[in-house]
Structures are given as structure tokens and as C-alpha cells.
Amino acid sequence: MIGPKAVLTSPKALLLDFGGVLVETAGRPGWAAELAADVHALLERAGFDGLSPAEIETDIRAGARADSQWKDSTSRQYAPQEMTHRRFWAEFVATDWPEQARELVTAEASPLCRRMGELRSERALRPGVKELLAACWARGVRPAVVSNALCGLVHRDFLTRNGLDGQVAVQVYSDEAGVRKPNPELIHLACRALAVDPGEVWYVGDNYDRDVVCGVRAGAGATVLMVSPSTDKIPYEVRQRPHATVDNPLGLLRLLEDTWT
């Protein structure tokens, strides 16, 4: 669906969010207990036995909840920075742990964030993604991934396993860049890597407060909202509106095809 005043032209690059656009995600209820068992084993190997798996799980769940609320708050900022792996474990999970345990998980923060990302969600490609990417390359439109992530390596691993790492020209993740949407710098990083102006790209995401706001702030040629289960979970109202709304990757492909004809 296109707004009545929107006139879209074919982009030189298509910047895509990961979760909700390329991938459907479903939470795994037992993820925190599994991660707590891994952390407990890590602490035991270091000779520390002062925390039970249940206590670790409670703090992991509390840290994840606090992180979610922190993320909502950053969407009110113009140029938010991303949470570091070390800060997440030291300040959001292990705040009140004994010093040895807190320092150990802080030192191992990056692999622990990667493990957390692997355990927390089941992921599957949204139908039509492969057709969308193939059509873009055939038309000379370079697809790229621009996404917030606690650990972008998890996303890179997923695309590699599904044979799509070679089908995207650039991958930009917030934890690697140090900034998070709606900071327009995340989109600008991708544009510089692709040697295109922001006005020559479309940015596609599934959230208003992060994706639509980011695309508009970055000056993207078009900001497209792709509907996902999280689209209506808006923490607060925003002024920015997308140039177009689509239901799925095939709907995005049809929108592109309209500009090609």
C-alpha cells in the first residue's frame, strides 16, 4: 500500500532489517535456563560455585527485561549508542554477583551474547526472501542488511547457513557499529559502504519507533514498513510515517517491480 502522495523511484540499493523483514522469529521459552546452565558451567570451571543455576537464570531474565526497556527508551534519542556486550553482562545481568563471577562473565561477554542470541529465538526465512534478493541482483539493485542486534554474528551465521551471505552486498549490525537505530548513522554506514547516497536507497523495517524513524532521519529515498507480529507493539507514538507499507517480502518485490516497469 502506498500513501496518496508517495512517488517511488527504483533504488540503487535495498537496505533490509533482519528480524521481521528477512526472518521470522519465535521465542524459545527455555532459553534462559539453557544459558544459565552454560554460565554456571563456565563459573565452575573457573573454580567459582557461589551461584546456583536458578539464581543465574533469574538474573539473566532480569537483565534481558531491563535491556528491552532500555532499548525502548533509546528510540526517543536522536543518535543512540548501542549496548556493549561487556556492559550488558556487567551492569544488566551480574550487577550484584560476587566480583570474581562478575569479572568472568564480563571477560566472556561477547561469546555469551552470541550464545544468548542462538538460544533465545527460533529463526526462519520469511517466504519470498530468496526471490526478492535474486530479483534485486538481476535488476542491479544491491541488497544489504542494516539491523539492530545484541550480537550481529548470530545473524551472519544464520545467513551463511541458509546460503544467503553471498546474496547481500553489505551487513551492518549495531553491536559492531556501536550505534543503534533510530540513529541515522547506521543507514549512512551502509550507504558509504555501497557508495550510494541515502536518497538513492530504500530502507525496509518492521517497527515504527526504530525503523521508520531511522529511515526518515537518514533521508532514505523511501522508507518502507513491512508488517510483522511486532509492528503494532509501539512503545509510544512517533510522527514519522512510511512512504509505503507491505505485508511481506513478495509484497516488497511487487512494489519494486512497479518502479521497474
From TrEMBL:
Which terms in the Gene Ontology molecular function aspect does this entry carry?
hydrolase activity
The cross-references to Gene3D superfamilies, in alphabetical order and at most eight, read: HAD superfamily/HAD-like (3.40.50.1000)
What top-level branch of life does the organism fall under? Bacteria
UniProt KW keywords: Hydrolase
| Xref: NCBIfam families | HAD-SF-IA-v1
Among PANTHER family, the record links this protein to: PHOSPHOGLYCOLATE PHOSPHATASE
Spell out the protein name for this chain.
Answer: HAD family hydrolase
